[in-house]
Design goal:
By secondary structure, the chain is α/β, with parallel strands linked by helices. It has 19 helices and 23 strands. The protein has two domains: about 20-160, 2-Layer Sandwich (Chitobiase, domain 2); about 165-530, TIM Barrel. Helices cover about 35% and strands about 20% of the residues. The two termini are about 40 Å apart.
């Protein structure tokens, strides 16, 4: 009887160990995953065999190499295979031009090797992120683990649902150092997010060095006071601290170069014609009234905006010329949101422009403003993105619309033949509370956006034809920082909602299951968050 009990116990232990080993807690969920028995065990002699020595291919390999360097002091050599050496216990990159999606990959994890197929370095990079999530969470720690480093055998075929998967960070309301920006880019890569939208100018601060206009950072990057508490409070109180900061052009280049190694494209945003008080404080002659102005120390929408005179367009073209030289990506975001027309209605120059250009009203004047800037940006070989207010008064010819107020405006743009990135407040504003019990949460702007609501996000609105649907490029999470002053605060508002957003824009719509997602999230990425000592919300993880 005792022998039978021992045998049953041993069998149960083996079954448990096999089950524990072969779990696949990957977020975002792959398109197709077939579990296989066994595991691949990494060792000191494991190599990453590359089809060529292209720099991007080396960056893809380094995504895995760096985890082992940090964790175990192992150096997994990345090299082209030697014809005289038989591969064994290696990770092998295989170029496959038959894979249509440039970010797709096929992953064959066997006991004696891992084969990765992709059509480009980006596909190999995302395969490495999948392997990273399959590895024990100790792979994230800056010290040697005391456990085996292995991944379960599997056959995985994967590709993103959308080509644009983004995250916006506002560094104007509160400023974050280059070191922190790079950490956030690391988080994007971990979640297979491929675009970092950098909100660099606003009423509360100008954050990018423009050499032709030094006052933008000399004056516009600094404010003398900042609101304490919520804007909705009856009595406003301020600290009297000189606050601000900006990124030099060398720092900008550093961030862009770093993001490239993580297969993240950086999109700069230079706000216009509204949200311009910081710029007007530096150069008041660009306004309708002539100022003076001070960099805003509280939040909201301000009536003082760029005037539509020729000096404004010369200034903005000069600024954008320097910006475009720093950011090699396709897009330049020019804002276009929340621009009051109060000053324009009273401005002799603006009213003259309306008459001479035969415009209907101030909304068409804004359309003229955006179209003129777009023409300059297009001449530089780039494409303009604007918030959905740029629809008002007529949409510029080649503009891409970022729809934030709702899904309907994005649908209107798609029906007009314009590309659209969906980022509606109801699903994508990560500055909203994560709990109904706001008393237990950090101060936030308002709203309520739980994890499940983010997970339910579908970038395609109802009522579009197949051809119109093709204009929906993807989705983006936005984090505005009026009430987020610290790096840990950014992490808390970002995680774990970024995981839900990543699955919404990567994984197939069919088969989505929130309960199953949350289980994968807790068993996989959240344990990696812990190993990385990240701050995250646990409100929806119970």
């Amino acid at each position: 009887m005792n022998k039978l009990l021992i045998a049953v116990t041993l069998l149960g232990t083996l079954v448990y160990e096999a089950h524990a080993q072969n779990t696949y807690d990957i977020v975002p969920k792959p398109v197709q995953l077939k579990a296989r028995q066994g595991k691949f065990v990494f060792g000191k002699d494991t190599r990453i065999l590359l089809p060529n020595d292209d720099p991007d291919m080396l960056h893809a390999a380094y995504a895995l190499q760096e985890r082992f360097l940090l964790t175990n002091a192992w150096y997994l050599k990345a090299e082209k295979p030697n014809e005289n050496v038989i591969p064994g216990n290696d990770v092998i990159f295989i170029l496959n031009s038959g894979i249509q999606n440039r970010e797709a990959y096929r992953l064959h994890i066997q006991k004696n090797r891992i084969e990765v197929e992709a059509a480009s370095a980006a596909g190999f990079f995302y395969a490495m992120q999948t392997i990273r999530q399959l590895l024990p969470p100790e792979i994230e720690r800056n010290r040697a683990p005391n456990r085996e480093l292995s991944v379960p055998c599997a056959e995985i075929e994967d590709a993103p649902r959308y080509p644009y998967r983004g995250f916006l960070l506002d560094v104007c309301r509160h400023f974050f150092a280059v070191k922190e920006i790079k950490r956030y880019i690391d988080l994007l890569a971990f979640h297979k997010i491929n675009t970092f939208h950098w909100h660099l100018t606003d009423d509360q601060g100008w954050r990018i060095e423009i050499k032709k206009y030094p006052n933008l950072t000399g004056t516009g990057a600094w404010r003398e006071r900042t609101l304490i508490g919520h804007l909705s409070a009856a009595d406003h109180k301020y600290n009297q601290t000189h606050y601000g900061g900006y990124y030099t052009q060398e720092e900008i280049k550093s961030v862009v170069a770093y993001a490239k190694t993580k297969f993240v494209t950086v999109i700069p945003e230079i706000e216009m014609p509204g949200h311009a008080v910081a710029a007007l404080a530096a150069y008041p002659e660009l306004s309708c009234s002539g100022g003076p102005f001070e960099v805003a120390g509280h939040w909201g929408i301000f009536n003082d905006v760029y005037c539509t005179g020729e000096n404004t367009f010369r200034f903005l073209e000069d600024v954008l010329a320097e910006v475009i030289d720093l950011f090699p990506g396709k897009y330049v975001h020019i804002g276009g949101d929340e621009c009051p027309k109060v000053r324009w209605k009273r401005c002799h120059q603006c009213q003259t422009n309306i008459r001479e250009l035969k415009l209907k009203d101030e909304h068409e004047l804004q359309s003229y403003f955006i179209a003129r800037i777009e023409k300059f940006v297009n001449a530089k070989g780039r494409t303009v993105i604007g918030w959905d207010e740029i629809l008002e008064g007529g949409l510029a010819a080649n503009a891409t619309v970022m729809s934030w107020r709702n899904m309907e405006n994005g649908a209107v743009a798609a029906k007009q033949g314009h590309d659209v990135i969906m980022t509606p407040t109801a699903f994508c504003y990560f500055d909203y509370y994560q709990s109904k019990d706001k008393n237990g949460e950090p101060l936030a702007i308002g709203g309520y956006l739980p994890l499940e609501k983010v997970y339910d996000f579908d970038p395609v609105p109802a009522g579009l034809t197949v051809s119109e649907t093709q204009h929906i490029l993807g989705g983006q999470a936005n984090l505005w920082t009026e009430y987020i002053a610290t790096p840990s605060g950014v992490e808390y508002m970002l995680l774990p909602r970024l995981a839900a957003l990543s699955e919404a824009v990567w994984s197939p719509k069919e088969g989505k299951n929130y309960v199953e997602f949350k289980q994968r999230l807790k068993n996989g990425p959240v344990k990696h968050y812990d190993a990385l000592d990240l701050t995250y919300s646990t409100v929806d993880l119970n």
